[in-house]
Amino acid sequence: MSPREWSDRVSAVSALDDPTRRALYELVSGRERTSRDDAAEALGLPRSTAAFHLDRLADEGLLDVEFRRPAGRGGPGAGRPAKLYSRSAAETNVSVPSRRYELAAELFAQAISTAATSGEPVRTVLRRVAVDAGRAAGARAASFEDALVDGGFEPREDPAGGIVMGNCPFHQLAQRHTELVCELNYELLRGVTEGVPHCAVRVVSDPGAGRCCVRALETDRETADEPRPDGVTRPGDPLSPS
């Protein structure tokens, strides 16, 4: 998640800290559509107050807005269309530290679906889809470190060498399914190194208390620029597909 996306999500959730806005959001969520007049009457608010807070919720992406004339009224004398609010289908969530359980769910679902069709072991397919997802994330990022930040890994330089990940985006899953999730993290970050152009980094498995199980180490540019077929790990990679 980029810093801008993080800021937008925090701002949206913070908007619900106001009791009036929270009450309006709950009111709108329980109806198909709500006008300013209806909301003001339902909560005993001045219309201007209801309008201000409803628009703030819409600006934050929590409510959708549309304009409609009342049923049965049309033509030149029908008046201005009413501004109607409904709950947005867009999801807004904030977790501290950053968690990416929706990404894990997507990768697991994709692996299970593909394996059911191809007959391959699910875990083999999971490795492949994780690498593909990491490769796509790396291609979108300006650098390897930026991709790690966007993914919620909280990279930091380690005096012992290389970069360690201060956060596991799949922490709760890793607590219950450690080997599987650590392998997922490894393949995901291996894909990132392949997606970032001229990335002079390789990843190794290196579990440690209070951080992710993957460490990133510098490598030479010539190795970084060598083509690597899908499923082929770099020299020294401790987790090779089986």
TrEMBL record:
Q: Name one Pfam family in it.
A: HTH_20
**Record-linked CDD domains:** HTH_ARSR
Molecular function terms from GO: DNA-binding transcription factor activity
Which Gene3D superfamilies is this protein grouped with? Winged helix-like DNA-binding domain superfamily/Winged helix DNA-binding domain
Q: Which residues form the HTH arsR-type domain?
A: 11-117
Chain spans, region Disordered: 219-242
Its domain of life reads: Bacteria
Q: What spans are recorded as compositionally biased (Basic and acidic residues)?
A: 219-231
Output this protein's name. Helix-turn-helix domain-containing protein
Q: Which organism is it from?
A: Georgenia subflava
